[in-house]
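Q: For a teaching handout, I want to show students what a protein-ligand complex looks like in token form. Below are the inputs, and the small molecule is MU-OXO-diiron. Please produce the holo structure.
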Amino acid sequence: MFSKKMEKSLNQQVNAELYSSYLYLSMSAYFSEINLAGCAHWMRLQAQEELLHGLKIYDYINERGGRALLASIEAPPQKWDSPVAVFENVLAHEQKVTGMINKLVDQAISEKDHATNNFLQWFVAEQVEEEASANEALQKMRLAAKEGGLFILDQELARRVLTPAA
Ligand code: FEO
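A: Here is the structure, written as tokens, with MU-OXO-diiron included.
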């Protein structure tokens, strides 16, 4: 068993992960509307990942004998000023989620809840990846917005393979 306080905090995190899913799906809809199918695809997959994050915590709550309680999910924004602004929002959002996960870990440590601390370490590692991939996408969007030709050339150079000497 875990504490009621921990159960409540984990339920709040389920809600936060589902909100993330909703946010990225809204971003996907925005990109579909402006005919950027690649960005819409990236966001849709991101939305699916967030749903899986929420389910992972939901399953853990059940496993520990708690009760997953699904609260209402806040409506996400529907419009952004530019594609770059969307990716800025993604990075800022992931940084916020990292802060939430860190707080949960702090709570697990202060409650000496080793199992929850261990469970949360997956999310600690995942947030490193989440922030890195959001930042990478943002930097590419910024480059493409400013220097479209340079962006395409860089992609071409990235495809170079080593040719063994004859
Ligand atoms: Fe579930 Fe993107 O963090």
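A: Two things your students might notice: The chain has one domain: 4-158. Residues 17, 20, 50, 53, 94, 97, 130 surround MU-OXO-diiron (CB under 6 Å).
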